[in-house]
Design goal:
This protein is α/β, with parallel strands linked by helices and about 210 residues long. It has two domains: about 5-125 and about 200-210, Rossmann fold (3-Layer(aba) Sandwich), CATH 3.40.50; about 130-195, Alpha-Beta Plaits, CATH 3.30.70. It has seven helices and 13 strands. The chain has helices at about 5-15, 30-40, 55-60, 70-75, 100-110, 140-150, 180-185, and strands spanning about 25, 50, 75-80, 85, 90-95, 110-115, 130-135, 155, 165-170, 190-195, 195-200, 205-210, 210. The strands form three sheets. A six-stranded mixed beta sheet has the order 2-1-3-6-12-13. The protein has a four-stranded antiparallel beta sheet with strand order 8-9-7-10. Strands 4-5-11 form a three-stranded antiparallel beta sheet, covered by helices on one side. Helix 1 (about 5-15) packs across helix 2. The longest helix is centred in the N-terminal third of the chain and has 11 residues, at about 5-15. The structure holds ribulose-5-phosphate. The site of ribulose-5-phosphate has 17 residues, from helix 2 and helix 5.
Length: about 210
């Protein structure tokens, strides 16, 4: 089975967790696009969605799914999102689509975080995928120098501006043995908006294709 088919299966499998009347938190990416397709079939059963990016907002609206403001909805029951890497403890690297800040906010504001991935995203140790870090533009070089002190090689994702008007550094060559610790440390660097490590608030359930990870 090819990668896109696995993503489609994962997107559809996440529908098991959608209940009538819910406001659903919706992530960003090609796997989530399959989830949005499936969610559209039940758009009359749910109250609406909270979106993690302008891109997902467009998709949701195209499908006739109401997009709601997180400030008005309060805590969400469910957040569904993809990932770039996932370890055995359900810690994630996210932000390949540059939507990490809003994704982290919705994950934090949700009771259950269901992560949908294809098998290629599973790793033993996080860090093969360059770690995205969203930074305030004026802090780019300072943050890059600090990231080098942590053993990484930051590369500016030139030309990419996030939905929040910020920039992304992709940090190569990290071997992330302690995801929670590194997330905490990198969060302390002045000018860092969001680190693409989702370890403190990791996934509750990971669907690899249609199968839940143990
Ligand atoms: C966006 C993300 C995505 O979830 C991640 O990049 C995975 O994307 P895809 O489902 O297209 O492989 O974190 O910021």
């Amino acid at each position: 089975m090819n990668q896109d088919e696995q993503k489609r299966l994962a997107g559809r499998a996440a529908m098991r967790y959608v209940e009538d009347g819910m406001v659903v938190g919706v992530g960003t990416g090609s796997t989530v696009a399959h989830f949005i397709d499936a969610l559209a079939e039940r758009r009359h059963d749910i109250e609406g969605a909270v979106s993690s990016s302008d891109h997902s907002t467009r998709l949701l609206k195209q499908h006739g799914i109401p997009v709601l403001d997180l400030n008005a909805t309060g805590e969400l029951h469910l957040y569904v999102d993809g990932a770039d890497e996932c370890d055995d403890a359900k810690c994630l690297i996210k932000g390949g689509g540059a939507a990490l800040t809003r994704e982290k906010i919705i994950a934090a504001a949700s009771r259950r975080f269901v992560c949908i991935i294809d098998p290629g995203k599973r790793v033993r140790v996080l860090g093969r995928f360059p770690l995205p870090v969203e930074v305030i533009p004026m802090a780019r070089s300072y943050v890059a120098r600090e990231l080098v002190k942590h053993g990484g090689q930051p590369v500016w994702r030139d030309g990419v501006v996030t939905d929040n008007g910020n920039w992304i550094l992709d940090v190569h060559n990290l071997h992330i043995a302690d995801p929670e610790g590194l997330e905490r440390e990198l969060n302390q660097i002045a000018g860092v908006v969001t680190v693409g490590l989702f370890a403190q608030r990791r996934a509750d359930i990971v669907l690899v294709g249609a199968e839940p990870m143990p």
